[in-house]
Amino acid sequence: MALEQTLSIIKPDAVGENHIGEIVAHFEQAGLSIVAMKMIRLSREQAEGFYAEHIGRPFFEGLMNFMTSGPVVVQVLSGENAIQRNRELMGATDPAKAEPGTLRARFGSIVSANAVHGSDSPVSAAREIAYFFDQDAVLLRN
Ligand code: DAT
Ligand code: MG
Hints:
Blueprint: E1 3-10, H1 12-16, H2 20-29, E2 33-40, H3 44-50, H4 60-67, E3 72-80, H5 82-90, H6 103-107, E4 116-118, H7 122-132
Function: Major role in the synthesis of nucleoside triphosphates other than ATP. The ATP gamma phosphate is transferred to the NDP beta phosphate via a ping-pong mechanism, using a phosphorylated active-site intermediate.
Domain Nucleoside diphosphate kinase-like: 3-140
Binding site for ATP: 11, 59, 87, 93, 104, 114
């Protein structure tokens, strides 16, 4: 087990449907602590840079439109195995395939509107946290 930090985004669908509180509570009840948090509206440039690995995919334009369609809540979660743990809490990318009780099953609707993002590896977690937060904005906890 390792103490890790991971980047989580509550996407525009879940923010617009007033699920911020339930999603944050889900993380906290699962033992992950929020050590940085902000609500922002992503610009096209920010969204592109964040999802650069997907440039050229057929769904990329839709993803850009969705991610810039309203405010998002960007947060750093901290805890034991936080990266994998958050992926488990989110469930599969397609909400229709996500395990019952996971965030995407509860709050997502379709693959292109799936409520939450979570870093998928230690390398992407480090990149994604630095993409949104200065190092001194991430509180040292746990
Ligand atoms: P994840 O968010 O589970 O890490 P991913 O990195 O493969 O999934 O894709 C990033 C986002 O892009 C995903 O949350 C939703 C969107 N997306 C992925 N595959 C898609 C598809 N086939 N159709 C529409 N949107 C898709
Ligand atoms: Mg991904």
